[in-house]
Automatic annotation (TrEMBL):
<dbReference type="Pfam" id="PF01048">
    <property type="entry name" value="PNP_UDP_1"/>
</dbReference>
<dbReference type="InterPro" id="IPR035994">
    <property type="entry name" value="Nucleoside_phosphorylase_sf"/>
</dbReference>
<dbReference type="InterPro" id="IPR000845">
    <property type="entry name" value="Nucleoside_phosphorylase_d"/>
</dbReference>
<dbReference type="InterPro" id="IPR019963">
    <property type="entry name" value="FL_hydrolase_MqnB"/>
</dbReference>
<comment type="similarity">
    <text>Belongs to the PNP/UDP phosphorylase family. Futalosine hydrolase subfamily.</text>
</comment>
<feature type="domain" description="Nucleoside phosphorylase">
    <location>
        <begin position="31"/>
        <end position="214"/>
    </location>
</feature>
<comment type="pathway">
    <text>Quinol/quinone metabolism; menaquinone biosynthesis.</text>
</comment>
<keyword id="KW-0326">Glycosidase</keyword>
<protein>
    <recommendedName>
        <fullName>Futalosine hydrolase</fullName>
        <ecNumber>3.2.2.26</ecNumber>
    </recommendedName>
</protein>
<comment type="function">
    <text>Catalyzes the hydrolysis of futalosine (FL) to dehypoxanthine futalosine (DHFL) and hypoxanthine, a step in the biosynthesis of menaquinone (MK, vitamin K2).</text>
</comment>
<keyword id="KW-0378">Hydrolase</keyword>
<dbReference type="GO" id="GO:0016798">
    <property type="term" value="F:hydrolase activity, acting on glycosyl bonds"/>
</dbReference>
<keyword id="KW-0474">Menaquinone biosynthesis</keyword>
Length: 218
């Protein structure tokens, strides 16, 4: 039986990059999730419900900001887990994540075997690739202070984006494995649009998706 993979991107430009990388590989469907975790969760859940269980894997793919000491601009991050980094509450002692409050979890793991195989395949192909946590935020970082606070709160965090945890939550509800792949367009920190390399990141996203089919279980 042919495997079926659903790939969700936030916007059309990311979808087109993913499709170019897949080059018509059978078994893949690429759809737009919208921007932010709520839209991503709703869109992904709707797609999975319409599919009536025919998917084997759900992927969140797109560009992202990278924590400079872990994932420089132009590199690829394959998530080890997706973390809803701003889901929680402010307390007198600082931020308390939703898991510490006892209201569920703000961390959802990616499929460890596929994530590791993809990162290794990219490195063998000469692409800078890292496997590590990817943060999901409703408001992306725009200051050095916030970047430092996130890095301290989530040691080893490699990148931040806006959709991964939402896609992961929908996959979890349907009992499906999850993967998140991010190409780094800018450094997490002060917002400087002139320094962003969106074209380069989309090219890296396209290249990364040329290796996705070969690392999936048959």
């Amino acid at each position: 039986m042919t495997r079926k993979i659903l790939i969700m991107t936030a916007v059309e430009a990311e979808k087109e990059a993913v499709l170019r990388g897949l080059s018509g590989e059978p078994g893949f469907e690429v759809a737009i999730a919208g921007v932010g975790p709520a839209a991503a969760a709703a869109s992904t859940a709707a797609a999975l419900a319409r599919a009536d269980g025919r998917y084997d894997l759900v992927v969140s793919a797109g560009i992202a900001g990278g924590f400079a000491d872990v994932a420089p601009i132009g590199s690829i991050v394959v998530a080890s887990e997706s973390i809803a980094a701003d889901l929680g509450a402010e307390t007198p002692e600082g931020f308390a994540s939703v898991d510490k409050l006892g209201f569920g979890t703000n961390r959802l793991p990616a499929d460890a075997e596929i994530a590791s195989r993809l990162a290794e395949a990219l490195r063998r192909a000469g692409m800078p690739a890292h496997c590590g946590p990817v943060l999901t935020l409703s408001t992306v970082t725009g200051s050095a202070a916030t970047a430092e606070a996130l890095a301290a709160r989530y040691p080893g965090a490699a990148a931040e984006a806006m959709e991964g945890f939402g896609v992961a939550e929908a996959a979890r509800l349907f009992g499906l494995p999850f993967l998140e792949v991010r190409a780094i367009s800018n450094a997490v920190g002060p917002r400087d649009r002139d320094a962003w390399k969106i074209g380069d990141a989309l090219a890296a996203l396209e290249a990364a998706n040329t290796y996705l089919a070969e690392v999936l279980p048959s």
